[in-house]
Amino acid sequence: PPYIALFGEWNTTNLGDTAIGIAATKYLLGLGFSVKAFSFGSFSYLGSITHECDADEIFHRFRPAVSKKKSLRLAAIHRLTKVKKIKFSARLARSAIHLSSVRKELKTCKAVVVGGGELLNDRYDQFMIALFWITRMVRSQHIPLYCLGCSINLSSTFLTRTVVRQFLLASKLISVRDI
Fold it and tell me: Residues 106, 167, 156, 59: what is their CA dihedral angle, to the nearest 10 degrees?
């Protein structure tokens, strides 16, 4: 069956995000799709889901495995983040490491779904970075984008409002919560 890429903060201990991930996956499976699950903030590929029993296993695994080579690169970047001025740049570099594998996985996907929680807020820098890159990837690869159950903070910075606006403009369907 065709794949849908599902991005969210699934690899945390937040029960609400996990429930959204499982429910969205089961819904998509019921429509005849398979799901490729990704962590939103880090772009980690969590796995492929073709059956409902796979969803529970994927979404309850909190720390996805990372290759040794990628782990060493991420550890070097993490050491750099102790210097406050380059923290944002280090997050950009970390996301770039994961982006090549995400692009490869997206080539087999019919759509991208971003779902759950406070993903449209600038509370965490990596969320804005993720929104920026996901928007660019779906536009460049002409993949439909869907926003599922994300909350938005209307008192954000100009940069955040710009990134969120571009993300929402690229979305075919927008389902928000907690406005």
Answer: -30
pTM exceeds cut of 0.85 = no
Q: Report pLDDT digits (tens) over 29-40.
A: 999 999 999 888
- Say how far residue 125 (Cα) sits from the centre of its chain: 13
Q: Where are the alpha helices (DSSP H) in 81-143?
A: 87-106, 125-141
Say how far apart CA 17 and CA 10 lie, in whole Å: 6
CB-based contact 110:2 (threshold 8 Å): yes
What is the Cα–Cα distance from 21 to 40, expressed in whole angstroms? Answer: 12
Half-sphere exposure of 99 (CA within 13 A, CB side): 17
Instruction: Write down the residue that tokens 């019919």 correspond to.
Output: 110
Residue bearing tokens 């969803």: 55
Q: Answer whether 129's CB lies under 8 Å from 98's CB.
A: no
Rounded mean pLDDT, 90-119: 82
- Per-residue pLDDT reduced to its tens digit, 129-168: 888 889 999 999 999 999 988 877 766 778 888 888 999 9
| Cα end-to-end distance, the chain, whole Å | 35
